[in-house]
């Protein structure tokens, strides 16, 4: 499944109308019909009081169809038109004419009727938002702003269903300038919109469901549209490495985790345990010698490589001791708990020069140590995977965090292409970018994952799957999905507050047994 933007949807609609010969009025009829099906599924009430708020564009046209079809089913919806009927054009005008020719009732919003609307909304069971669609650009103006603000007073109290996208949310960026509907559920057409997963979008869409309106999915390939893909359970399941029934520990790869410091003892332990519990045959853990006793007590399953340290962090000579062993590893993960230390940049440079071109996953403060020597990425012959959160990404690019957050998709795509690496940009909805420019959005995630150690687990999962033979892209898809879903699942059991790193690992194990 793809995530579409305004231009992509316009091109798909245009192709369907002009090349396939399916009129726009039919697409609008289909959209309204599918929306009605979902509206009725959303309530156990056999005769709900429904208010349809319709704007003057195509989104409003969907609203006219919805109101008419609800009447046909024996309900008594109340249709409010939030635009001058004389200025409504095109397919929306045709459906408004059909509605009015039926003699069905409607109310045109006027300034003196806003109090009446408020009273009607207070008595409604379901509020349908068909005010503004995917073409919104800039802040919502009056009187629509007042209507949206009024509807939002019932957010969380009444069922608010948005048609295609919550009014006021950008379909491309998820940005909200001013007011936007806070929907309980969004019924979207053909594909979910990119804005569902970016910026403020996730705070407004509620649950979402994409429904078919007779725009064939094959159009995407025919038109050569480049759209992000959503990471679904089906996609993630197909990306998990297949385990031969008669395999042994050598079959399932050997991952090396390099990390830890006096300040961050737990981070490399979380990574190593995540790698082991996700199927790696062997996991070696290279740590500063000073934390060896603690790590040995907490992580007897791993092969431990205590290395020279200075003041609780790796010494420059640590890489020299590690060099003779590096060719044994199928994947190297570096960064969990490594901290920022004097000569750390030289240490990173030394590590790159001694690796044997196996895949490397770089996370946490290893990203900080890399920030001033990005040429290391271009000169490295092996696969490189970076997993920054927005703050780390801002340091890699030397731009404000806000700029990263507001342009996640394009920043991820450009960075991956420019440096020929794989990138997982963490966040509420993580983004994966390949060197080819291919993008994936993880629609899962939970605030329960916002805790120290969570990212270290993700690093371990990625390193594990790569070591087991998964392609870098498959490793990122499966690891990010399992990590996010584990957070969601464990939060249901342990609350938003109580999920700890080892709970996430336990959640991953359960999912690997289920999907």
UniProtKB/TrEMBL annotation:
Cofactors: K(+); Mg(2+)
Keywords: ATP-binding, Isomerase, Lyase, Metal-binding, Multifunctional enzyme, NAD, NADP, Nucleotide-binding, Potassium
Alphabetized InterPro entries for the sequence: CARKD, Nnr, Ribokinase-like, YjeF_N_dom, YjeF_N_dom_sf
Residues noted as binding K(+) in the record, renumbered to the chain: 59, 129, 167
Cofactor note: Binds 1 potassium ion per subunit.
An annotated Gene Ontology molecular function: metal ion binding
Residues that coordinate or bind AMP: 426-430, 455
Domain YjeF N-terminal: 9-221
Limits of the YjeF C-terminal domain: 232-515
GO biological processes: metabolite repair; nicotinamide nucleotide metabolic process
Annotated positions binding (6S)-NADPHX: 58-62, 133-139, 164, 267, 337, 389, 456
EC annotation from Swiss-Prot or TrEMBL: 4.2.1.136, 5.1.99.6
Known catalytic reactions: (6R)-NADPHX = (6S)-NADPHX; (6S)-NADHX + ADP = AMP + phosphate + NADH + H(+); (6R)-NADHX = (6S)-NADHX; (6S)-NADPHX + ADP = AMP + phosphate + NADPH + H(+)
Similarity comment text for this entry: In the C-terminal section; belongs to the NnrD/CARKD family.
PANTHER family, per database record: ATP-DEPENDENT (S)-NAD(P)H-HYDRATE DEHYDRATASE, ATP-DEPENDENT (S)-NAD(P)H-HYDRATE DEHYDRATASE FAMILY MEMBER
Complex formation: Homotetramer.
Function statement: Bifunctional enzyme that catalyzes the epimerization of the S- and R-forms of NAD(P)HX and the dehydration of the S-form of NAD(P)HX at the expense of ADP, which is converted to AMP. This allows the repair of both epimers of NAD(P)HX, a damaged form of NAD(P)H that is a result of enzymatic or heat-dependent hydration.
Name of the protein in its database record: Bifunctional NAD(P)H-hydrate repair enzyme
Organism in which the protein naturally occurs: Neobacillus niacini
Gene: nnrE
